[in-house]
């Protein structure tokens, strides 16, 4: 007779950790993509990710927009991390998505039959090229420092970034110049101390700004619309 209970049984009731990105890992919920976005999933579970095709219904799956619609099985797109047990990445290329807002629903299982679900939202830009989108500065209003953030379509190149800040009367009061290598679509952290080109602290009030990008490698330029910021000392 064989029986009994192991005192060393694994106590695990949680499914894998799921992180969802598009195109690169700078993506944030609600971000912008082109019509052919690359889905990137980072998965992690200390007991391992279930990839067995014999476990019916226990696949890594993605469902676009309709949560109860057709599922895409992603098991074959999974690559385990080197020397990191229980970690891996899925990369799946979408093609010709309709412009507009989309949701992606992800489900994954560990080898102990625990599942997890995650959801993200993204916006497919009909005019994939020539865009600077999701432009913000934070905090806004601010007193001493603010950061500019935006998304663009000039991936994997060195960028010349110029942010021009104007008074409401249209007078140019500050130009911020930076050079960055941008691996992905999003830049988050161009800082400004609220001073003009002469180092003087600007007065309280409403100002407008515009962002310009250029890539000498691709011989391309991009320009944003005007956006508003508020200084409150």
Structural notes for this entry:
It is elongated and about 85 Å long. The model has no long low-confidence stretch (mean pLDDT about 90). β12 (about 155-165) and β13 (about 170-180) form a beta hairpin. It is mainly beta and about 230 residues long. It has strands at about 15-20, 30-35, 40-45, 60-65, 70-75, 80, 85-95, 100-110, 115-125, 130-140, 145-150, 155-165, 170-180, 185-190, 205-215, 220-225, 225-230. It is built from no helices and 17 strands. The strands form four sheets. It has a five-stranded mixed sheet, with no helix packed on it. Strands 12, 13, 15, 16 and 17 form a five-stranded antiparallel sheet that branches.
**Largest sheet data:** 5 strands, mixed
Low-confidence stretches: none
Shape: elongated
Tell me the distance between the termini.
80 Å
| Beta-strand share of residues | over 45%
User: Would you report the number of β strands?
Assistant: 17
Strand order of the largest sheet: 2-9-8-4-5
Class by alpha and beta content: mainly beta
Order of helices and strands: EEEEEEEEEEEEEEEEE
Output the keywords:
49% strand; 5-stranded mixed β-sheet; mainly beta; 17 strands; 5-stranded antiparallel β-sheet; 233 residues
Structure, briefly:
With 233 residues, this protein is mainly beta.
Could you outline the blueprint of secondary structure elements for this entry?
Layout: E1 17-22, E2 31-33, E3 38-44, E4 61-64, E5 72-73, E6 78-80, E7 87-93, E8 100-109, E9 115-124, E10 132-138, E11 146-152, E12 157-167, E13 172-182, E14 186-192, E15 205-215, E16 220-223, E17 227-231
Parallel strand pairs: 2-9
Antiparallel strand pairs: 1-3, 3-7, 4-5, 4-8, 6-7, 8-9, 10-11, 11-14, 12-13, 12-15, 15-16, 15-17
